[in-house]
Amino acid sequence: MTDQTETRLTELEIKASFTEDLLDKLDQIVTQQQDQIDRLTREVHFLRQQTPEEGGMPQRNLRDELPPHY
Fold first, then answer.
1. Is this model's pTM higher than 0.70 or not?
2. Do 49 and 56 touch, CB atoms closer than 8 A?
3. How many Cα atoms sit within 13 Å of 30 on the Cβ side?
4. Distance between CA atoms of 24 and 27, rounded to whole angstroms?
5. Nearest-CA neighbor of 21 among 13, 31, 10?
6. Residues with Cβ < 8 Å from 66, sequence gap 6 or more?
7. Is the dihedral of CA 57, 45, 35, 62 positive or negative?
8. What Å distances lie between residue 4 and 9, 11, 14, 29, CA to CA?
């Protein structure tokens, strides 16, 4: 192999390693976000099952909470 080819190969290996690290970090972020979504979904489901007599929150119409221009 020529020096130019070896240099190019080394550059590609570095870029591939960097890309793998980024993909690993992105995978961690996606997993954390999915865990948070799952937790919030369970919390919403739990709150919807409770009635006001049981100390739960009454059903709200979220549209009533929007600013007037909506």
1. no
2. yes
3. 6
4. 5
5. 13
6. none
7. negative
8. 9, 11, 15, 37
Q: Which helix (H) or strand (E) holds 48?
A: helix 3-49
Question: What are the CA-CA distances from residue 51 to residues 55, 56, 64 (Å)?
Answer: 7, 5, 20
User: Do 55 and 61 contact (CB within 8 A), yes or no?
Assistant: no
Read off the tokens for 8.
Answer: 């190019």
- In the prediction, which pLDDT does 48 show? 82
Give the pLDDT confidence of 35-68 residue by residue, as tens digits. 999 999 999 888 888 755 555 556 677 667 666 6
What would the two tokens of residue 33 be? 């976000």
